[in-house]
């Protein structure tokens, strides 16, 4: 099968340069569904404004506006662009967005960093600094829960907003927001499409991705249904020497969504959406370089799995002069977080954590926005989120070891500790934003959000703690009777915070082709309660007592920017310069003796930088895109007590590269009067950055053993494609030079395999068809 695949991929590359078929421009269904492999029709010398990237209409301000007119740093992708660039997941979005780093050591282990706002790439126990939304549902939560690798097939648009978005998107958007907007049904015509992606990683890791869509107008202009399904079977490329499994980090991911749109009148529409995704990686992708290339070790597979089910109803009503939107969402997210912890003691004792989580979330947002085009544009709304997260912490060891120290009748199975807990949190907020246009050249915008957040953790009765460590380290000559202390029910400290976030901006448009702006925006994160607050270490009583938690941090972003079109539209440029003050920073640390995670606060940091996006059409059919960012982010305020508990040092760099950038070149050309092919090349550079703060929490004179830097690396990808009427073919190579650079270092010592690397070279073939 794999030999056939290799031959097929080579043949596709040849076909891509010799095929004779209809151009993508003459296949409207293909363009609508994003299957065209070339972003431009070379037979047209000057594209219409609607074809230009900067004329994408986005809703980043909760109102439809042209990308080039909003006073925000936003990178937007249509489905057509996603397909043309081969972007199928978060990695591609990060590659094409300046100032963004994706910390992804393994499948479903996603944590974005924007503009240098991160103290490490993991953020365990902390709310994410970049909010991730699927339509109106925030799916990003805290750093040590899984965030699914959301399928990006048949989406309407993806928007990456940089800088704090607290005014319109709430507490989780401290430094940015990623919005994935799905497509609504077409009420007028039938449509269907499919995309198959087959790839080979290394020599024997086969990747299969299957996607399909069908759109059915049930009642013309009134009722329509759109259904999307997907399935991924991606063989792993790492060998786990602990479990003896070859290619252990295989991923099985499947799911779909169905959207029913009802439009009884021209003014009213009601949309019902149901979606489900089951993402099941069979092992982690973190490696141990000391064992050799593509090797990892754990006593059993480390699992970061997730099952997300979502239901949504969105009601839209068009009043005279204003538009009402009400979105109601309920989601259920079940996850596993199973990890080998034995490296805490250098492998001397086998133990690990099997954590099972279940999160239920209800979100309601209602907003009323003015119709565009007036002297005053406005939006006002309310937001409510209610969430319950249940987590069962089951700490395991070897059953043979338990039997050896306690005897065969200990009755503990393999778990020496079980702690069942749940956390209940709420967020209630009102928000508004108003733009006043003095004239066509000058306007100002002000936004305000005031909200209250609260969170409370509970320990449920029924768990227990055995004196496993005390007995195991004593190494008794004969089995001893276990001491098992039950956990009683207890209610943790309820924390709450009321916060106002605001945004002020002024925009000046000196000409029709240039917009400039200056913005001040703010953001914050919710307080954090430490689950084991007040508890001493059972291994070393002199170690840190776990603090109660971390209060809200806050951030101010000062930004100036410009968005312009030059050379009769053949060049577009977006430039942003920012200065960020981050105060009372929430940080994650780990107690040295037993690796218990906890959250606390430290003084402050400053991040400053420049972001640039260029898109050029120098000749017919040729597109050149360049983006890059320079950033300097470091700790600027720190007390001695904060340094001691967190491991930070004054002047320590935050976890972000000084420089990163990418370039994308696509050439679309007619090989006959009716055939369009294209060749695309992308290259990404990411500079090195520190994995965490350098010192040991509780011992600030010592350098943390896990401290280190990622590699500075380049990742180069290429695609050759062709449109054959409704059929599209593309042969691709990812990581052409098979770069094995370290892109992530885990900050916690309990993992023996702590290093994330680029996926090895992958060659593949994508085949799409529109019916």
Walk me through this protein's architecture.
The chain is mostly beta strands and about 775 residues long. The protein has a single domain, classed as Beta Barrel (Maltoporin, Chain A). Helix content is about 10%, strand content about 50%. The chain contains eight helices and 42 strands. A hairpin with a 6-residue loop joins strand 1 and strand 2. The radius of gyration is 26 Å and the shape is globular.
Concise structural overview:
The chain is mainly beta and 771 residues long. It holds the Pfam family Plug.
The overall pLDDT average reads 87
Strand residues, percent: over 45%
Number of strands: 42
Shape: globular
The CATH topology is Maltoporin, Chain A
What would the keywords be for this entry?
about 775 residues; Beta-barrel_TonB; cell outer membrane; 22-stranded antiparallel β-barrel; Maltoporin, Chain A
């Amino acid at each position: 099968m794999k030999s056939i695949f290799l031959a097929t991929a080579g043949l596709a590359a040849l076909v891509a340069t010799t095929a004779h078929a209809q151009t993508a421009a003459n296949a409207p269904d293909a363009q609508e569904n994003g299957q065209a492999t070339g972003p431009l029709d070379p037979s047209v010398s000057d594209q219409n404004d609607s074809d230009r990237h900067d004329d994408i209409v986005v809703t980043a301000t909760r109102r439809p506006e042209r990308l080039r007119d909003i006073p925000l740093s936003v990178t937007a992708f249509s489905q057509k662009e996603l397909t043309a660039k081969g972007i199928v997941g978060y990695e591609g979005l990060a590659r094409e967005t300046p100032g963004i780093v994706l910390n992804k050591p393994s499948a479903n282990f996603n944590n974005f960093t924007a503009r240098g706002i991160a103290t490490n790439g993991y953020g365990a126990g902390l709310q994410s600094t970049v909010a991730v939304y699927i339509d109106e549902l925030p799916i990003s939560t805290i750093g040590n829960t899984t965030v699914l690798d959301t399928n990006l097939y048949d989406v309407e648009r993806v928007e990456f907003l940089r800088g704090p978005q607290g005014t319109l998107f709430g507490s989780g958007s401290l430094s940015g927001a990623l919005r994935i907007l799905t497509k609504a049904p077409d009420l007028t015509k039938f449509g269907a499409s499919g995309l198959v992606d087959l790839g080979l990683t290394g020599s024997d890791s086969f990747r299969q991705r299957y996607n399909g869509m069908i759109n059915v107008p049930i009642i013309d202009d009134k009722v329509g249904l759109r259904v999307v399904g997907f399935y991924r079977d991606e063989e792993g490329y790492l060998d786990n020497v602990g479990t003896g499994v070859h290619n252990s980090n295989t991923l099985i991911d499947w799911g779909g969504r169905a959207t029913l749109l009802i439009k009884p009148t021209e003014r009213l529409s009601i949309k019902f959406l149901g979606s489900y995704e089951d993402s099941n990686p069979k092992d982690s992708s973190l490696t141990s370089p000391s064992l050799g290339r593509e090797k990892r070790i754990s006593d059993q597979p480390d699992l970061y799995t997730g099952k997300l089910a979502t239901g949504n109803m969105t009601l839209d009503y068009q009043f005279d002069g204003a538009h009402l939107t009400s979105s109601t969402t309920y989601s259920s997210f079940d996850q596993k977080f199973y990890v080998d912890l034995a490296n805490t003691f250098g492998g001397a004792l086998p133990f690990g954590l099997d954590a099972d989580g279940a999160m239920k979330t209800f979100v309601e947002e209602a907003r009323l926005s003015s119709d565009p085009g007036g002297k005053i544009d406005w939006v006002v709304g309310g937001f409510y989120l209610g969430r319950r997260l249940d987590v069962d912490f089951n700490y395991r060891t070897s059953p043979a070891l338990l039997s050896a120290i306690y005897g065969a009748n200990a009755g503990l199975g393999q778990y020496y500790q079980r702690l069942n807990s749940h956390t209940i949190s709420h967020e209630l907020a009102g928000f508004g934003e108003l733009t006043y246009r003095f004239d066509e050249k000058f306007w100002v915008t002000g936004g305000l959000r005031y909200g209250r957040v609260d969170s409370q953790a509970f320990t449920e009765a029924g768990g227990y703690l055995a004196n496993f460590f005390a007995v195991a380290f004593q190494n008794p000559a004969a089995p001893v009777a276990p001491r098992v202390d039950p956990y009683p029910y207890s209610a943790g400290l309820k924390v709450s915070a009321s916060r106002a976030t605001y945004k002020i901006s002024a925009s000046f448009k000196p000409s029709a082709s240039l917009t400039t702006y200056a913005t001040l925006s703010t953001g914050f994160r919710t307080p954090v309660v430490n689950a084991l607050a007040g508890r001493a270490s059972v291994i070393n009583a002199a170690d840190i007592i776990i603090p109660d938690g971390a209060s809200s941090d806050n951030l101010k972003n000062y930004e100036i920017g410009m968005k312009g079109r030059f050379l009769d539209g053949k060049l577009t440029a977006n430039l942003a310069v920012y200065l960020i003050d981050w105060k009372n920073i929430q940080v994650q640390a780990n107690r040295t003796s037993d690796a218990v995670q906890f959250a606390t606060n430290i003084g402050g940091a400053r991040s400053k930088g420049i972001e640039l996006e260029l898109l050029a059409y120098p000749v017919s059919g040729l597109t050149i895109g360049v983006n890059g960012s320079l950033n300097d982010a470091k700790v600027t305020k720190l007390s001695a007590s904060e340094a001691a508990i967190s491991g930070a040092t004054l002047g320590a760099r935050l976890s972000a590269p000084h420089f990163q950038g990418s370039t994308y070149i696509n050439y679309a050309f007619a090989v006959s009067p009716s055939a369009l092919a294209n060749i695309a090349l992308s290259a990404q550079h990411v500079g090195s950055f520190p994995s965490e703060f350098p010192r040991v929490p509780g011992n600030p004179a010592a350098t943390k053993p896990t401290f280190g830097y990622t590699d500075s690396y380049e990742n180069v990808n290429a695609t050759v494609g062709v449109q054959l009427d409704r059929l599209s073919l593309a042969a691709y190579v990812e990581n052409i030079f098979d770069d094995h650079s370290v892109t992530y270092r885990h900050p916690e010592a309990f993992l023996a395999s702590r290093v994330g690397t680029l996926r090895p070279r992958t060659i593949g073939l994508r085949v799409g068809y529109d019916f």
